[in-house]
Structures are given as structure tokens and as C-alpha cells.
Amino acid sequence: MSNEARRALVTGSSSGIGLAICEALLAQGWQVTGLDQAPPRLVHEGFDPSAVDLSQPAAVDAMLRTLPPVQAFVHAAGVLRVARIGQLQPDAGETMWRIHVDAVTRLANHLMPAMVAAGRGRVVLVGSRVSRGIAGRSQYAATKAALASLARSWAAEVVARGVTVNVVSPAATATAMAQDPARAAVAPRVPPIGRLIQPAEIASLVAYLLSPAAAAITGQDIQVCGGASLDGV
């Protein structure tokens, strides 16, 4: 992708990983449209925030009509609710599904055809190592596993059209989600490196995947795990 007319759409732009991604892209000269229900925390001439509740399909559909053309789409918005079997809450599962799966489907369905028509585009979805399954987080894990399946399927559809689709799956990351009282009973697992992953570390990988140098990387679920995937650790 050339440096001309580079605009990225980033969800979850007001905190955590999404905010770090916006900062990294702005530093590289991207124009960024940020979507978040929370007020924006960035003030930058290249940043255009938009308030939207991604858990509300009608709000997402209305927002789609206002979006400018983009060359990259990053879905970093997320929410975590934890519960063990016997205590699972359908409302919590539905909220996570709407934000992690339904919203990204609506956004990609609107944005990706234009990328294909232009012969260039980048899509990165922020997943989770939890997608492989972990006690107490089954509903969250299921939505993140669905996200990875969507990405791989879309990558296969557009592989020869100049558009890449990848997932970046962090281990426990130092964000507000890690301190959410709703998950107090299930503490984050510190990776073997001895600390939580930093949002800027995720952002640097995402920025690379949006770059021309990453044109041959597609359909991948890249783990940023601090050694958590190593055997015997």
C-alpha cells in the first residue's frame, strides 16, 4: 500500500489496545477514524472520533452510512464477562457476541467490498489466546474463536485481490479490562515472561500488518503470548 490516502478505521479507540493502535498509526502518518462508545482520549489533527455502541446493531448500521472510504480496518473493541458453567448469563454472552462477532461482520461487509474493488486493503481483528478455551471464560472464548474463523474465511475469499485479513491474539494485556470488577473472580494469567503484555506491543504488530511489507501475510492468527504457547513453560 502506498503512503497516499491512508485512512484506517479502528474500533475500541478510546482505551487499551485500540487506543494504542490509533497512536501507532497516527505516528506513521495514517488518518484514523475511531469508533467507541466512550469519549475520545486522543486529540490529533489526523484523528476523527465517532461515538457508537457496537452492541446495538441498528446503531452500527446507521454509523456505516457516515463512514469515509478506508484502506484498513482494525477491530479492537471488546468486552469480557466471566462465569463458570451453571452461572452463565445469556445477556452477557449476547453482548460479547454482538461486539466481537456481529459488529465486525457488519463493518467488514460494508468496508471490504470497496477494498477488493480498489485492489488493496488490510483487515486486522484483535482476538485472544483464550479462544482456545479456558475455564470460566467459555462465552468470551467462543466469540473470539468465531472471530478467528471469520478472519480465515474472509482471507480465503479475497486472497488474490490485494486484501489481507489477519488476527492478532494477545495473552493477558495491561488494559482496563484486566482490572474490570466483573472478572474479579478470575484473575488474568501472567505470561511466562513475568509480566502482562503491553498495548503498544500489540499496536506495533498491527501497524506492521497494515504496511506494504506484510502483503504476503494473510489468514493468520498471530499469538502475542509472552511465551504462554511454549511447550513445557
Describe this structure as you would to a colleague.
There is one protein chain. The chain is α/β, with parallel strands linked by helices. Helices cover 35% and strands 16% of the residues. It has a seven-stranded parallel sheet with strand order 3-2-1-4-5-6-7, sandwiched between helices. Helix 5 links the parallel strand 6 and strand 7.
pLDDT < 50 stretches: none
- Principal-axis shape equals globular
User: Which structural class matches the secondary elements?
Assistant: alpha/beta
Which strands sit side by side, in order, in the main sheet?
3-2-1-4-5-6-7
Strand content: 15-25%
SSE topology sketch:
Blueprint lengths: L6 E5 L4 H12 L3 E6 L10 E5 L5 H8 L7 E4 L14 H29 L2 E6 L11 H21 L4 E8 L28 H11 L11 E4 L9
Parallel strand pairs: 1-2, 1-4, 2-3, 4-5, 5-6, 6-7
Helix pairs in contact: 1-5, 2-3, 3-4
Short characterization:
The chain is α/β, with parallel strands linked by helices and 233 residues long. It is 35% helix and 16% strand. Helix 3 (90-118) links the parallel strand 4 and strand 5 (121-126).
Short key terms for the protein model shown above:
single chain, 5 helices, about 230 residues, alpha/beta
